[in-house]
Structures are given as structure tokens and as C-alpha cells.
User: Fold DUF1499 domain-containing protein from Halomonas lysinitropha.
Amino acid sequence: MTQDRMTSGYRGRGLAFKLALAGGILALLAALSMAGAGPAYRTELLSLGDAFSMLRYGAYTALAAAGLGLVGLLIAAFTRRTLAALLGGLVILTSLMLIAVPWMQLQQAHSVPPIHDITTDMQDPPAFEALVEAREAAPNAVEYPGEATARQQREAYPAIQPLVLDAPLPEVLAAVEAEARDAGWEIAEVGDARLEATATTTWFGFKDDVVIRLTETSDGVRVDMRSASRLGRSDVGTNAARIRAFLEALEQRLTS
Assistant:
């Protein structure tokens, strides 16, 4: 009987390590799948739908890895196998971190309205000129969507407002161009009082177009900005965040 228990214990120890190791392999495959989804779409190896499927299957694989890691950890704890327990814990932690990426994106998508065109001037949005052809070739419209989008923007992003700067217009325009280049945007056109550029997201390479319009007023130079995605019904808050960050950086550049 004692010999049988010892044999069972040794088997349990080996099983714990094997399960944790299998979980680690699955976690690695999940990481490769999820990390590769964006580049695969950017390089046109996959369609957007297939890239999202790759991301989803990667999350499922990470969930399976977490399950194997948990079982391995429990067996390792019962059989007092420190190495297997550490490996199982590491697999669980890694898998949960991988699962958190799409989960956080999903939560963000649910917390913002399904719009993709944000501007500081909803009554007279800055219009695209140099980027008209590029936007006409994309699914989303060139023209501002209208009052339905404006209403949702007012409710979700009330802080998106024009910026008024106490500086000469040429100085503001130079600062706008410098800030756009620092942000890594592709400049399409710089006019006497406007700038158009394209921002590309890091992971999937989504292209969002930006137009900035400067207007001289009695209080200074008013800066209006519009950021619009070429693809997708919802931008998951990206365009509003871009406008906020850009205007804050521009103001700091000119007032510091």
C-alpha cells in the first residue's frame, strides 16, 4: 500500500510539471497569435475579420493555458513540487495578462459611443481637402456625419473644445506642424492657416485623418481640430484622446 502511494505521488509530481509546461506552451502560442494579429493585418496577410478572429482565438488559447496552469498548480501544491507550482503560477499570470488585453478593449468599446469622427467645432467642422481622395477610397465618409454624431460627442466628450492661444498665427501654425511631426503623423498638407495629416495606430495600423484649422479672433488664434477614422463604426475613444493630447501638448509648447 505504501509503495502504491509513493508511486502515485511520483506520478502526480510528474503530471503537475507536464500540465504546467503544456500550459506554458499554449500561453506562448496565444501570445504569438495575439501579437501577430495586428501586423498580419497591416501587411495585408489577413483581412480585418480574419485578424480579429486570430486575436479572439489567441484569447481562447490563453484561457485554456490558464486552466492547465491552474490544474498543474493544484497538483503541484498537493504533491509539494515547488518548481511545477512556480511554473503553473507563472502560466496563470501570463495567461491572465494576455486575456486582459482584449477584455480591456471590449470594456473601452462599451464605455464610449459608436462614433468615429470627433471635432472641436460640431457646427462648422474643419473640412478635409488634401485627404479627400484617400478618404473617398475608405469605407467612412469624407463629410462630417452630422447631428447624430455631434449629440453623442457632446454627451461623451464634453471637454473637447476649441483652444484659443495668445500668439501670432504664423507662430501657432509652426507649433502645430512641429507637434504633428513629433506625434509621428504623416503630413499631407500645410496651408496658410490649416494642416492635414494622417495618424497610424501602432498595433493594427488603422489610419485616422486629422485636419487642424486656425482662425484669428479678438481673443487670439482659435485652434479647431477634427480627427476621423477611415475604417470602423467606433474608434473606441481614440480620436477624442488624440485631440485632447494634441491640444494639451500644443498649449504647453506655446506657453512654456
